[in-house]
Design brief:
homotrimer; 304 residues; alpha+beta; Rossmann fold; Elongation Factor Tu (Ef-tu), domain 3; eight-stranded antiparallel sheet; six-stranded mixed sheet; 7 helices; 14 strands
Chain lengths: 304, 304, 304
């Protein structure tokens, strides 16, 4: 009688690792680069990743970051990461200094994501918004695609993609990446938003490029503190390096459809930051404004 | 002896749900938007979907629909859906009225696909071609990304993507989406093709944007009825709001290579609709013509 | 006692095919086309593939090959294939002769990949670099999407995508594709690199389109033979059909960051071919040069 039990449990036991493997969630890697999608660069990176583990789930954040624009890369990670399953490994390669002495790092954020990237400022906004739990420097003597030592210009394929795939697939643990980074990570500087003299001021951090909306770094807490109210009119001024580029009045609304087509509005965007748009038109193109550390916005209530 | 059988079947029985899970087909979601691929919007939607179920298969139809062009969105669904496995969930977000009182719906088509979309005309051609079995309005009190109630401008992420993922993964059934839609869906108007006075007339519904071919809504049944024949010459006239924009003679052929490079031809395209092209050149650019409800085509046989 | 063993092994045996299926690597298909990503063509191809087998892994190499540019298609396959897992099935559809009498083939390369494509020169560089083990002509009477016989213009969907999916999923073996191709494959002609009169000469095979770098077909063996050395200056001349289009001196470096921003350099790219770039600028745009069989490069050492 006892023997029967034994065989039963031996069967269960033998199958366990195989079943676990088959049903476990696959590792997830999300790629962001400025490589574009017209050539084979992104596909070479994905090939390296699937060669590490064909069961990986690989998804593109975007490969159309403006070439060399680290700020934009930083913003896109901040925009997207929180919506992905915890444990997702992001690999971001916008790397004007490829082959020079900038460091290669992997960071774990306090909200549970991993970021594989050159240490050049890409993690500025993730660090400010969520904080980094630990940062490690990639030890390239251990963690580098085999046979790639003579290649100096494609670390996205030879180092970052390879390490991200190994980490996401569980072939290495975070600790195996390399030693803890002793110095702070590189950060890009930008002006935080504030209220002064009954004016709400901030930076136009980025464009919503498909629709031309301006997204600022003024978050909804500051919007509430300034007591912006639905359907009321506000005077909006946009400056580039201190020079006025746009001024106009517009209402604050919840969404585009609450003003007529072609009319401007203030609203809180999907990341809960104050934004400016023209309903069904491109505000940035219409008024020749752009985004970045040199672009500032000022909002005050129109007296009635 | 009986006992041995029992253990054998207990083993089988215990493993059954796990094995089923591991071998069952994953849910499939196909995304269509006008978000573009330069920023993080599409990736935020995918992150929400994989957070619902990491085993989902997610594929892009296109994220480059001309902004706010609902007709184009409707055409692309009609062009593609029939080639996907039955049960595939399409989520289409071209939503100029986001945040206004347009409804959010899920439709099941008679040929076995699901469509999650604002009710703004996106399903016009799927409805006309295949018919809709049932349409339900999304109950956003139950079916909305948790914590997104203060976000008014990104229903693609907060409602449509989330609902599509829950439906495709089996976490909700079609009935759980919300109540049956009592009113008819919104439909875009367009002129159906016809034969009159020995002329074959129709609408230029869409461009094949990469090659500049004109695709009409004249289907192969009407082509046969009009008795168009291979290698014969036809006079083709294109009108925009009643004004002549192109007129020329060209043969009807099966495929591009049957005329010389740079020569025009009539042919039946991959959706079995009459089309116009220039072999290895861009007809639309060469002759400054476009597509849409205002663009009409007239075909008649050249007398010999 | 013996009976107990029997039941134990019967259990193992019964589960074996199911488990194997669940844990086996999925077939991988990599798609390359000139279809663009604004319409539904690529998604129709993917729908056909997933209808063959929903477990397939499908990835895009690029769908932005310059329309009808077979050379570029050939280069991208050469650039990428070697980084993918062996057994990956590449389907490349750049097909100016669709519907004419060009053949449809599947090739197995000596380094273990499959290529499904029209026989129009797409395999030129894979053939020259790795060699082809065997080439078979697709028998379209057996291997064609059901119901697509009246469609003459979309072999990417009806033939190539369908066959690639069937091969990758194991539903057919390579031998089932059709008979061995008796004639050689179509090859594009180009000039191989050489050293003559203390000059290193080659073809500018392709641009790195995102950054404007020139990639030549001068490989690192020839670079070593010519004894190019780091930090030394070289005179670089670019010709188009024999006419001088650029001449200038620049150092040979390992990577971009070793020269100042806006400065030119020679380097060995990620495919180990000699290349020309401007650090953080677009060399091709700055000097109005391009790539292709008519674009030649000449390198000689600057006498010091």
């Amino acid at each position: 009688m006892k023997n029967k039990f034994i065989y039963f449990f031996i069967t269960l036991f033998l199958w366990f690792p195989i079943i676990t493997l088959a049903t476990s969630n696959p590792g997830m890697v999300v790629i962001q680069t400025d490589f574009g999608i017209k050539d084979g660069a992104v596909s070479a990176v994905k090939g390296v990743m699937y060669s590490v583990d064909p069961a990986l789930k690989i998804s593109d954040l975007t490969n159309e970051i403006t070439p060399f624009n680290i700020w934009e890369a930083s913003y896109r990670l901040y925009q997207v990461a929180q919506y992905w399953p915890q444990g997702t490994v992001f690999v971001s390669v916008v790397d004007p200094g490829v082959g020079t002495h900038r460091k290669s790092i992997v960071a774990e954020s306090n909200n549970g994501y991993y970021f594989v990237t050159p240490d050049n400022g890409t993690l500025t906004l993730i660090n400010d918004q969520y904080g980094l739990k630990e940062v490690r420097e990639i030890d390239e003597t251990k963690n580098r695609l085999k046979g790639s030592n003579d290649s100096y210009t494609f670390h996205g394929r030879d180092v970052y993609g390879y390490v991200a795939a190994r980490l996401a697939s569980g072939k290495i643990q975070f600790e195996d990446v390399g030693p803890k980074l002793e110095t702070p990570i590189v950060k890009l500087s930008y002006q935080k938003p504030f209220i002064k003299d009954h004016k709400l001021e901030g930076t136009i951090t980025i464009l919503d490029p498909q629709y031309g909306n301006l997204w600022t770094n003024i978050d909804d807490k500051l919007v509430h503190e300034f007591d912006i109210q639905k359907d009321k009119l506000y005077k909006v001024t946009v400056y580039y390096k201190g020079q006025k580029k746009f001024q106009g009045s517009m209402p604050f609304e919840h969404t585009f459809g609450e003003v007529k087509k072609d009319k401007n509005l203030l609203y809180v965007n999907s990341l809960m930051n104050l934004s400016v748009a023209t309903n069904q038109k491109n505000f940035a193109k219409l008024y020749h404004v752009d985004a970045g550390a040199d672009w500032r916005i000022e909002v005050e209530q129109v007296k009635s």
